[in-house]
Structure formats: C-alpha cells, structure tokens
Here is the input.
Amino acid sequence: MEIGHYEQKDLKNNLISTIQPGAFLGLSNLKRLDLSSNRIGCISEGIFQGLTNLIRLNVSGNIFSSLQFGVFDHLLSLKVIDFATEYLTCDCNMRWVLSWSKNQSIQISDKTLCIYPSTLHGKPVRNVRENQMRCEGAPELHTHQLIPSLRQVVFQGDRLPFQCTATYLDNSTHILWHHNHALVQGDERSGIILEESLIHDCTFITSELILSNIHVSASGEWECTLSTAQGNVSKKVEIVVLETSASYCPAERVTNNRGDFRWPRTLAGITAYQSCLQYPFTSGNGGPGMEKQAWRRCDRTGHWEEGDYSHCLYTNDITRVLYTFVLMPINASNALTLAHQLRVYTAEAANFSDMMDVIYVSQMIEKFTGYVDQIKQLTDVIVEMASNMMLVDDHVLWMAQIEDKACTSIVHSLERIAGYTLSTDSQHVAVNSRNIAFEAYLIKPESYTGLSCTAFQKHEVMLGGRTPRQERYSEPLADQQLKFRCTTGRPNISLASFHVKNSIALASIQLPPGLFSSPAHPHLSSTKCKLQLLAFRNGKLFCSTGNSSHLADDGKRRSVATPVIYSGTHGCGVNNLTEPAVLSLRHLGEGTDRMAAYWDFDVLAGYGGWRAEGCQLVGLELNVTTVSCRHLNNVAVLMELSNFPRESQSPTEVLHPVIYTCTAILLLCLFATIITYIVNHSAIHISRKCWHMLLNLCFHIAMTSAVFAGGITLTNYLVICQAVGIILHYSSLSTLLWMAVMARVIYKEAMWKAPQQQEGEAPLPAPRPMLRFYLIAGGIPLIICGITAAVNIHNYRDHDSYCWLACRPSIGAFYVPMAFILLITWIYFLCAGISLQGQAKNLKEMPRSLETPPRLGGSSNLLSDSGSISVTLNSGPNSAEADGVYSVGVQFWALMITHFLYITLWAFGATAVSQRWFLLKVVFSCLYGVTAIVLGLFIFVHHCGRRRDVQSSWFACCPSYRNALPMQAYVHPGVGVEDGSQVFIGCSPEAAHSVKSSSSPSSTNSAPGSCKLNNLQVALGQAESNPLPTPSYEDPEPPSSKSVPTPRYANNLHGRNRHHKSRTKQYREGKHQRLKALRGPSSEHPASESGSFHNSLSESYQSSRNSPLNNRHQGLLPNLDSALTQSDLSDGGGSSSHQAADVGRAQRRSTSRDNLRHQGNTVDKETKRRSFPLNVANQNGGLKGSKYDINLASADSTAGMRTGLWKSETTV
Here is the structure.
C-alpha cells in the first residue's frame, strides 16, 4: 500500500523531539495520528499541513507546556484531541484553545489536565473558563534550578562553574546573572566567563557561568534570574571565599526577647543559622530554606555581626500579645473593644521589661487617637493607658524612645485629643487617672477672662514618706488619682493654701486674661478656641536621649524634679504670649541648681529635649518653685538631684512609751524562762518534746514583740523596714504554729489509752524525732515569707506609718494562713477539752469498790527532823504525761490562756500603730501594755514560779540551802514504782540514771555511796501516803487483767529511752512453792546467772502486789506498827543496790488467783518468822506523838525482814 493511503499512523514512544513543518504532506487520507510519549517540545504552526482528513490526534506525554495560536488550523476534519503533558500551563496563552474547540466542535480529551498554575492543577482543560486563565504575577515555572544549589565554601584561586536551567516560555525569556544584586558581565581577564544561553526543544533555556580564578571579592550571593514578559524569577546561592589564613568567630550565646540562641564557632565569612525553637540534638547551622530561623554572619575579620531575629516569635507572653494587637486591623467598629482589651494588659505596665512592649502600646495609642472624633469613649481609655505607661521602668522607656520615639508618640497623641473630642455638643472634657490629668475647654475668646487650674492628688499617694521611684509600686486606686480643679479669672492660688480634704496640690497654672488677644490674630475674637491642659505626675515620658550638653539639662546633669504641666490651644494659633503664664510646681525630691525649662520636640533629630528660652524662675521656696513662660508647652523645673536622697522628709514616728516599757517587761519574763530551762534542763521534770516546744514558743513571742516595738515605725529606711515586715510576718505565723503543735500534743495526751500488750509482744515503738515539729512550725512560715518576698519585695513596705505587708498581698500571705492555723488550733482545743471533761466525769461516777489503789506517788518524809531521809516519788496517775509536775488538764488551760493572750496582744499592737486618732492610739497602746505584762508574768509564774523542780534548781545555787536539802528518792518520770522502777535515795537524777542503766551486780555495787536504794523506805512512804481503808467483809470480785493498764512509753527526761520486756514468770500452785518463797534460796534454787544469791532469791519471789501480805481483804491483815531507826533504814550500798534490782524484777511478776486462798495462814507464818530489830526503844509500836506515824501494813507494799544469813536484807 502506498504511504498516501494510510488512514492510521502510530508514532508513539519514538523519542521524537522535533517535527519539521510539512512533515505530513501527502498523507491526506490519514484519519488517526498518535504522537504520544515522545519528547516533542515545540509544536509550531505548519507541522500538520496536509492532514485535512485527520479525525483524531494524540500528542500527550510530550514536554511542551503551551501551544502556539493557530497550530491546529490545518486540521479541518479534527473531532478529538488529547494534548496532556506534565508541564501543561493553563495561562492566558492557552485561552484560544477553548474558543477554538468550541467553535470547531472539537472534543478535548478528559485526560488533558491543567498542571500549572497551582490554582487550576488537576482540572480538565475543557472545564476551565476563559477568565480563569490569567497571566498575573511572577510565572510559575515547571523547571528552574541552579547548580550548585547549596552554599559553597571555596579557597581563593579555585574554579567554580554555575549552571542555570529554567522553563522557556517565549521569545522574551532570558537568563541574567547577578552578584550581590549587581548585574554580571562576562570578563575573562577578571576570571568571569559567561556562556551563551541555549534553548532545548523550545522548552528549556540554560545559561552557564564560570568563575575561573576566584577572588575574595567573589564572596556573597550569586543569583540566576529568569526574565520574561510576565515577570522575573530568580535562584540564589551563597559563595564564601576563604583566604589561606582564615579566622573564626568564637562560640557565643545571645539571649534576647526572641529567645536563647547559642551561636557555634563559625568560620569567617560564613553565615550561621539557628532555629527559633531550640530543640536538643539539633544542628546549630542550617540552610536559609529552613522556616523560622535566625541568622548571623561572621565577617572576614572573625567578628560576629548583628543577627536577624525578626522571624522568631517573642518569648515573653505580654510582648507576644501586644504584637498581636499591632497586627490586628482597626476600624470604627472594633476600636473601642480593642482599646479596652489593651488597657487590661497595660495595667501591669510596671512589669514590662522589653522596650517593644512600650513601642507596641504607643503604636496602638496612635491608632486609637484617629478614631476619637467618632468614638468619644476612647478618650478615657487612651489617657488611662498613657498613665499606665508611666509605671514602666525608666530604662525601658529610654530604650523605647531611642528605638522608635515611643514616648514622644504617646505625648503627641495626648496633645491631639482635645482637637478631636471638643465640639458644640461637648464643650468640656475631663479625664482623671493615676499619673495623668486631662482637662479641655471650648472657649469663646471674647468672653475669656483668664483661667487658673490646680493639679492635686490624695495625700496618701504623694509625699507620704516615699521617693518618686517608690511611687510606681503603688496600686492605682479610684480615690488616688491626679485631678484638675479650675476656676475662671486670676485668683491668687498658692500650693500651700490649697484646701481640699486629705489632698495635696502638686502644680498650678494661671493663664493670663489676654491669652487670645494677640495683635497678630485679630480674627480670634469671632472663633471658638479649644484649650487643653495636661498634668504629668513626673517627667518619665520626657526622655532625653541625645547629646544635650547645650540644652537645659546640661548633658543630663539636671533631671525633672517636679510634675510637668502642658497647656495648648487648637484652632487659635496662639504661640508667643504678650503676658506670661505663671506655674507653681512642687518638688518631688531634694536637689540644687533649679532651672525652668520647656520640652521641644524638634531638637536632637526629633527625639526632643529641654530648653530654657522663654521660661524663668520668679519664686523660690523650700519645696515649691514658681515659673513664668511666654509660650504654651510642657513646662517643668529641672534640678541636680542628690545621688542619695532621703527616704522621707518627716521624722520617724515614735510609739507610746507604755509599749516600750511593757514590751521590756515581757521580754524579761520570756528570757528568764528560756534561760532557766536551758541551764537547769536536767533537773526539770519535763519531757524533751515539751522542752523544745516551750523554748521555741517563748523565743518566737519574744522575737515578735521585740521587732514590733523596735522597728514597726522605721519607714524612713527602705531595707530595714522590709526586713522588719518579713521578720514580723515570719515570727507571727511561727508562734501560732508552735501553739498549734503544743495543742496537738496535749490533745494526743488527753486522748491516749493504754495499749493491750501481751507477753512476748514487741515493745512500743520509739517516738518520732522533733524535726517534724521544726519543719512545720518553722518551715511553713519560711516558705510563705520567701514566696511573698520573691514575688515582690516591695510588698513588705506599702504603708506610710508602719512596716508591714501591703493590703492585697497580706490577705493571701498572712490572714488566710493565720485563720487556717487558728481553726486547727481551736479544733484541737475543743477535742482535748471534751476528752478531759469526759475523763473527769468518769472518775466521779466510778464506784468506790472498783477504784484502783493509787500508785506509789507523792512525797513523804521519814524519821528525821534535820538531815533526815526524804522519799520523793515523781509518778503521777497517768504514766503517759510528758510533764512531771502539771497534769494534762493544767497544761491544757495554761496553753489556752497563753494562746488567747498572744492573739489579744497582736490585735492591740496592730490597732495601736494603725490608728490616726491620738486618743485611740493611747487607749490601744495601754491595752497592749497590760496584755504584754499579763502574758509575760503568766508564762514566768506558771512555767517557773509554781514548779517545785524549778524552785529546787534555783535554791540549789545557794550553798546553805544545798547542805540542808534532804535526800530525795528519784523515780524516772512517767514510770510507776509498781511497774518495776527503782527508787534512788539521796542522789541526783543523773546518778540515778547511771545506776539504773546498769543491770549487772558489779555495776550496781559500783554506784556512788551517796546514791542508795532502799525499797523499804519506799514501802514506808507508800504506807504513809495510803492508809488502810475501812475493813470490808464483802469479797469483791478480783480485778481482771484488763484493769491493769500497760505502761505507755514515756520520754526520758534526758533523752535516754529504755524498753523493758515482760519478764513475768508464772509459778505453779502448791504449798511447797510458797514455803520456798518464804524461806529463801535453798539447794533447789542456786545462784542466778550472775552468780549472786540475791538475784536468785528475787527470782523465787512473787510480785509484792500479789503476795499474801498484799491482800486487798483488809480485815484479814494484822496491823504491824513498828518503829525504825535511821541506821536500820540505811542498808549497805551494795546490798541496797542488789535488793533494788531484785525488787524491780519481783514487781514484774504476776501470780495466779489460786495463790490467794491461804492468805491468813501465810500472814501468821510470815509474821512469826519476821523480826524487826530496828529501834529497841520503840519495839512495841510506832513513834506515837512524833512527827511521823509509819504504817508498814500498806495496801500496796509490805516490808519483810529476814534473819540469819539474810538478816541484813530487805525485800518488798
């Protein structure tokens, strides 16, 4: 078949790149042509000539991006076409395809999709409208690359080639090269070789640049720019050329308002990049393509240049929020809402630490000012925000003025407000704020007769013992605002004679009557003028930033020492006055070299400065300066302020003398108690826990009262006053906490019940250490005071007359914790009182027959007139008590009295210093004094004067008293004798401890001779203190084991704790056992483990409480009345000690109830076997008529004397 008769031709996948015009001539019968998946980039007009019968054409999968107009005009029979490519761009150059397909009824395949631009990506061409195919902005290229694409570091003299490839759009497409934004031309002598651009398949354009001999000057950015009729697109790469001796920039850390950046050691000429968000394990350098990065360049000399951190967000929350306000669009509908929101943030302007905070607020104020004429309420908000900005630190304001003239912008905005707010409907506007007062009038010049205005403020805010620097820490209260008071005419106004209750005049201005009668402006009489007045409490918004040595402040040697008063007109053009305006300004501090000046915004390159032309001083007083000026502007008085100004101009206030006198008495009583308990702590019968709590309570009460009386009024000294406030805060809370701890201890003692401890059980655990009380009573107040001081140290000096917490911080830092502590303390008091009342009621209702005989206790004297033996047993009815003298009830009432006296003392003292009326101050001072004396005397008398152990310690200092002092028997506090305690006669507690702590006979024998043990004397003392009750013939029910309480673990006085396990041994019934017990040791009972017959003997005896001689049936017991001599009572030291050990072990025994069956017979036998050769002269009875009557047949103790080998021993 001839080629001209082909109806279908398939030429796909043949890598065809170019088709010449007329290539298909002679194929008139061809109906289908497939040229897909080739590399055809140019489809020019004329290549489809001769295909008049072609119905279907497929040119998809090639590399062209656009089609020339009229390229398919020769295809007269075409019905279906597919020209989808991966670069197809549906822009304005493709609009003709839509109209052509519509006019010729040609179907565009569904597979033909738009790839570019991105807005039409993936959309079928036949569904796109013509108005969507636009050519706007820079073209979107499917190909644009620069090789190399990353930063290159080369050495001087190297060769570096560049290649730039981009999409070829049309004949207007060219590639240009730039170096540091300068056009590059080929120059082989300079080592720059620029090749001709090449066009590939009508689709790509390529340009090549070669740097053959790189010089140091080649460092920088090299840019490949694709220039088209639609726009330009460029690619950049950075080149760093190093010399042979390259230097480095050192590692450096930079912290600013954008974050914390650590710049690594970087080669000279290199630009380092840091991510705005610092994450661990990330590289310090990054490419410029990374988002949100900061960059910094290391110059050729090895020094860091200023970095660019503008892409990073602010780290401070306030700055970030204010920056968000700046980015918000403002209009008349949302201006007032945004202004109120911004005012909330400026209320904390005292905490602004970044100059950008001030800059952003100033920009917002300037924007809001433009809407004042539409929204009158914006005036109040703008003035208040400007007033809040005067709370910012001076240095932050100064930096903001240097950076963006922020302070000047705020003042300008305030000066323009009157021009927007005043109108025929609103002829007077007044706004008051903490630091700025605003007043504006709409005046008719022909009726103007002069105006005098005075700026005043509440007395508590100004000149109340504070420096101007301290003023910024005061909170803006509603009744402490700066205000104007104006009158017409020219009255004689003096700041000293200003009469407004509790107020002080700060400044005044008198405008002359001829203010508007200027000959240069005769037309003013027929117009209305707007007059505006502003009063700034200080000059913080007038920052002098440049070289002002030729100005009024003389190079910042002088500073603004008075308020600043502004006066100005709008719509009148009043400048120079024929008659000067007179201003009186009160000084904010002490200084010298006064000078009147006004603020000129035009000097120092627009930053502003103080000038003295036209203003002069006309009156000088101690605290007030009078100035006259012939122009309206911001006027103030400059002075050379002292570097160390006085804290206050008033002397220190002195409290009433009764406070100092009574506080001294209180301190004397408290320190006497503290010293007594420290020096004589071993002789005072009080537990270690109570000893610590009492001393800490007295010390903190003394600290509170001493600091209160000595420093509460030292407001003239800032640091000392803050220290006084902190100490009072700490000591007050700590004292209350120590009382709460003591209340808890008393509550635990009152609620204590003896635990049921069986044989073989482990002893009770030792008490927890005292450290927990110190952590509670001392640590909690320390934490509260530390947090309060760390938040704002100025919270501790916010009063004029006394040093204490500010009102608002004191609520959470003192009064709430104090109320909580008092609540806990009173709960403990209530529970302890109820418990003690219940115990007292139970004791009264207990039947007589069921009462337990009292334990060995009290004090009894034996057989002596002078120098006799005195047996003293310190053991109360409750072995758990921590005090050996006072019961739990007495301790409870003593603590309650101390608690309420201290609270009353604190309340009277606080009221006395806060009262302003002299009579009330005297009354509460006297009440404070009475309470202080009562509190001090009560603590001293109760804890020292009424205690016998303290009295003995005091009298022991006297030698005559110490020689006449009778011997005392010492028992460990809190341990009953019947529980196995040993009694020591005529020795100190330390000696008693040393003897008791030894368990072996040898150690017992080595006890000092002056410390003797005599259990018989103990028995006699118990017999005297507990006489025989009336005989009862009824057989009461034997007491059960539950009625005998187990002794609770008690604190040793000196911190030595002992645990005694139950060593009770049950003996079997039988007569021979009782006979052996009465006869003593035999061959069946050899010596004990220690080899002592005495120990062996004591082991064979039963407890004296359950012995036949200690029977509770009093009618069966004979009354043994015998007289004892002192020589018989004084056993040998060794035997006494051994006997004491035996008795201690014997008293821990228990016997069975069956041993009581033959009590009468045993008593008779025992009586016959006993002999008492104590006093021959009185063998027939006791010492009748003498000082002492001794009954040996006590209910709880019976003495038995042995003869023969053991005749010198005594057992109980």
